[in-house]
Design a protein that fits this description.
4 helices, alpha/beta, 8 strands, about 35% helix, Macrophage Migration Inhibitory Factor, about 130 residues
Length: about 130
């Protein structure tokens, strides 16, 4: 039941948003073994003049960037799976965006099962009643 919030540098592009959401759902399912049917993705665009790396706006560099945040239930993935996911995300975003700044980020937030859930139930509760 991961939730992903993806910020992309650039002007709003509905087609790109859909492609990014599809890639997010696919990578999260294939690498982290999360249920695609329970995956929620939000894609947001930030103008390059408002995205700064080392004090320089991306509008001056010509590079693209992203911040990819995904919340998952703690202790459901190994360090190796997370490392593989981060590498796969960076490669996929390079293919989608073109010249991607090195300082583009992926953050996996491990949330305690008793403090994370959907549909009014925690993941801990769902685990207990399985």
């Amino acid at each position: 039941m991961p939730y992903l919030h993806i910020q992309l540098s650039g002007e709003r592009d509905d087609a790109l948003a859909g492609q990014a959401a599809d890639v997010a759902a696919e990578l999260t399912a294939s690498v982290l073994q999360k249920d695609r049917a329970l995956t929620a993705v939000v894609v947001e665009f930030i103008e390059p003049a408002h995205w700064f790396i080392a004090g320089e706006p991306l509008a001056k560099t010509g590079l693209r960037s992203y911040h990819w945040y995904v919340s998952i239930t703690d202790e459901t993935n190994t360090k190796a799976e997370k490392a593989q996911y981060i590498a796969a995300v960076h490669q996929a975003m390079g293919e989608l965006l073109g010249d991607v700044a090195e300082h583009s980020y992926v953050q996996l937030a491990d949330a305690r099962a008793s403090a994370y859930g959907y549909g009014g139930m925690t993941q801990e509760f769902r685990y207990q009643v399985q």
